[in-house]
Structure formats: structure tokens, C-alpha cells
């Protein structure tokens, strides 16, 4: 029979004899039970009407009580009650008066919640977790580009949000970092302070312009006219002049100034 069982037996006997017998009766019963093994275990201590304790076990291991009776209670670490968020609860006597049950409503120490302004671990300090770096939901600007590029050209910051536990930030969202320069778009893509400074670029890729490669002075004479050329990939140069008409050998009798010198059928006899 365990120590607690022996003590419970004493309580049972005491609760039923208390109304009709003096306390000496209960003590006598306890004396009869001791030879069963209490000598090898912690003794039971009489602690008032309907209550016994196990010596050395702290709070009452068993307490008879008035049905429905309530008492304040707290099962947290000693010294934390009343600090920070920690509060006592209430325990209620069972309907059969055999003891108290639970501790309803108590608030025990827990992990610190970063940035909530509450001493959650009830040590007298607010938000003292050394891992707390931000307040949950807090936002801040961020930028991971090379130093000196933020705010230059297309480069701009993004946003980070403090995670729910307050110990880390989300990745940087929405930032614009330096890119390869795109010639002719009118932007400083590489954020170096210069627009369209692609090395060796002479035009904007896909750009179209008029062109003429005929002998100077011949454009606009006879059939000679302009064509068009398109900027090649990377803006590194212009393509051929398509559609132009340049001077040709004179064809006698066709009534055309084929060589675009301003004279029709010149040189024909």
C-alpha cells in the first residue's frame, strides 16, 4: 500500500468519525495503520479537520473539503505569481467533498512574445528574449543591391515584414536591383548614373531610320531615293539599307535618269 493510499485511508476514516468521535480516535486509527509500512515511507501529518498531509511533500496531497467550496490556486514556478501575465486561478471542491479539482483560470509563465509589451515569462522583464529583433507585423525598407546604387536609375528599395514570432524578417519583396543596360530605352538600367551607356552601342535595338548609300548629290534625282535600316540586337550597329534606290548605268532611250545626275539619257548618241 502506497504512502498516499495510507493517508487517504486515514482521511476517509477521519471524515466519517469526526462528527461522532474525538480527534484522538483518528490518531489511534493512524497508529494502527503505521505498522503496515509507514515506517519505511514519509509519515502522514494531521493538519486540522478533514485534512492530512504527506510530510516533505509540500502542498496537501489530499484534502477533504466542503462541496462547491473554492480556493485560489497557482501551480507556476514559485515567485512568478503576480508578475507580468501570471495570475492565480481557482480550484473547486468536488461534489463528494473528497478534495479539490484543477486550477481554472490561472496564467502560468510562457515564452516571451516579442514586441507585445507583456512579461510573458513572468520574470519581471518585458520582451527580454535576446532573440527578439522586431515587433510582429512591423515593416521596414530593404535593399540588397551594390552600395551606391539605391535610388540611382531604376533601382529602388523593397519591403520586409517581421515574422509572427518577432525573431526574423521576411525576404525583401518589391526591390528593383541593377540590370544589364538596355540601349536606347532611355533608362539607367545598371544604376550607375548614366543612361543607355552600353559599351559599344550605337542605337536602340529594333530602332528604324532612313538611309541612303548612293553617291552624294544623287539623292532625289531620277529614281534615286532613300531606304530604311534597323538597329541590330544589343544596339551594336545598323542593318543594311533596305528599299533604297541608288544610281545605275544610264539606259539610253528609256526616258529615265538612271545615273541620277539630273540629265535623262545623257551620253547616248
Description:
The structure is a single chain. This protein has 269 residues and is mainly beta. The chain has four domains: 1-63, no CATH class; 65-132, no CATH class; 133-199; 202-269, no CATH class. The chain has helices at residues 3-17, 23-33; strands at 44-46, 51-54, 62-63, 70-73, 89-93, 100-104, 139-142, 158-161, 208-211, 227-230. β1 and β2 form a beta hairpin. α1 (3-17) packs antiparallel against α2. The chain is rod-shaped.
Gross morphology = rod-shaped
Low-confidence spans: 14-61
Q: How much β-strand is present in the residues?
A: 5-15%
Strand order of the largest sheet: 1-2-3
**What is the count of distinct domains?**
4
Q: Major beta sheet, specifics?
A: 3 strands, antiparallel
Helix and strand pattern: HHEEEEEEEEEE
Q: What is the averaged pLDDT score?
A: 79
Distinctive features:
269 residues, 4 domains, single chain, mainly beta, three-stranded antiparallel β-sheet
List the helices and strands and how they pair.
Elements: H1 3-17, H2 23-33, E1 44-46, E2 51-54, E3 62-63, E4 70-73, E5 89-93, E6 100-104, E7 139-142, E8 158-161, E9 208-211, E10 227-230
Antiparallel strand pairs: 1-2, 2-3, 4-5, 5-6, 7-8, 9-10
Helix pairs in contact: 1-2
Amino acid at each position: 500500500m502506497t504512502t498516499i493510499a495510507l493517508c487517504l485511508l486515514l482521511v476517509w476514516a477521519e471524515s466519517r468519525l469526526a462528527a461522532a468521535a474525538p480527534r484522538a480516535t483518528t490518531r489511534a486509527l493512524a497508529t494502527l495503520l503505521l505498522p503496515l509500512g509507514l515506517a519505511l515511507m514519509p509519515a502522514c501529518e494531521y493538519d486540522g479537520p478533514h485534512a492530512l498531509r504527506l510530510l516533505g511533500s509540500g502542498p496537501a496531497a489530499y484534502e477533504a473539503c466542503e462541496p462547491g467550496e473554492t480556493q485560489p490556486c497557482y501551480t507556476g514556478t514559485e515567485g512568478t505569481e503576480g508578475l507580468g501575465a501570471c495570475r492565480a486561478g481557482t480550484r473547486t471542491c468536488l461534489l463528494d467533498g473528497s478534495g479539490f479539482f484543477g486550477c481554472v483560470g490561472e496564467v502560468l509563465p510562457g515564452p516571451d512574445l516579442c514586441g507585445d509589451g507583456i512579461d510573458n515569462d513572468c520574470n519581471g522583464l518585458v520582451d527580454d528574449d535576446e532573440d527578439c529583433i522586431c515587433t510582429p507585423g512591423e515593416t521596414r525598407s530593404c535593399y540588397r543591391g551594390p552600395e551606391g546604387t539605391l535610388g540611382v536609375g531604376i533601382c529602388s528599395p523593397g519591403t520586409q515584414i517581421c515574422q509572427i514570432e518577432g525573431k526574423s524578417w521576411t525576404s525583401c519583396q518589391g526591390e528593383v536591383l541593377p540590370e544589364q543596360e538596355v540601349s536606347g530605352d532611355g533608362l539607367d538600367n545598371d544604376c550607375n548614373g548614366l543612361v543607355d551607356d552600353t559599351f559599344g552601342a550605337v542605337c536602340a535595338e529594333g530602332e528604324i531610320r532612313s538611309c541612303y548609300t548612293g553617291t552624294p548629290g544623287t539623292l532625289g534625282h531620277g529614281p534615286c531615293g532613300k531606304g530604311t535600316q534597323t538597329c541590330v540586337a544589343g544596339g551594336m550597329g545598323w542593318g543594311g539599307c533596305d528599299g533604297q534606290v541608288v544610281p545605275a548605268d544610264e539606259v539610253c532611250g528609256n526616258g529615265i535618269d538612271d545615273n541620277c545626275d539630273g540629265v535623262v539619257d545623257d551620253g547616248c548618241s
